[in-house]
């Protein structure tokens, strides 16, 4: 595994210490097998959609949890009442747990399950205090008057 020195970034960027944690998390790939397959789609400047292929799972077997900057999607298959004997089993029927790292101010606004696809809609809502604002430049005479 490669180690990256992010020291030059810290010299000119304030508050990006989380970047090192994100890079480390992405590089570690903690056993994510790629199941179930998913897409991340940019709808517009502030909206995103995660689409996961969860064929065979019912709504009762899926759980979506958003806590802080993490989104956890978990699928738990119910135990079958009768054992089946497969000649060939190409459809995965195993449980899964997939974690997504959310950027600041990104929240889940809804989810739906349709035709074996789980769609999770997200929105970035930047607080007014964080939006750019115009700073008026005062002359020294105005500052002295106050």
From TrEMBL:
SUPFAM superfamilies: HSP20-like chaperones. Keywords: Stress response. InterPro entries: A-crystallin/Hsp20_dom, ACD_IbpA/B, HSP20-like_chaperone. It comes from the Bacteria. It holds the Pfam family HSP20. Residues 29-140 form the SHSP domain. Belongs to the small heat shock protein (HSP20) family. This is Heat-shock protein IbpA. It comes from Shewanella sairae.
């Amino acid at each position: 595994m490669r180690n990256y020195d992010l020291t030059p970034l810290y010299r000119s960027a304030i508050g990006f210490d989380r970047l090192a944690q994100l890079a480390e998390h992405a590089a570690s790939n903690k056993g994510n097998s790629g199941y179930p397959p998913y897409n991340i789609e940019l709808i517009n400047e502030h909206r995103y959609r995660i689409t996961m292929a969860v064929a065979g799972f019912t709504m009762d077997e899926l759980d979506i949890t958003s806590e802080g900057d993490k989104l956890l999607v978990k699928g738990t298959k119910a135990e079958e009442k009768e054992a089946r004997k497969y000649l060939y089993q190409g459809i995965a029927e195993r449980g899964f747990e997939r974690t997504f790292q959310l950027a600041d101010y990104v929240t889940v606004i809804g989810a739906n399950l349709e035709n074996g696809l789980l769609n999770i809609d997200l929105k970035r809502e930047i607080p007014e205090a964080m939006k750019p604002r115009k700073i008026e430049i005062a002359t020294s005479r105005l500052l002295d008057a106050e």
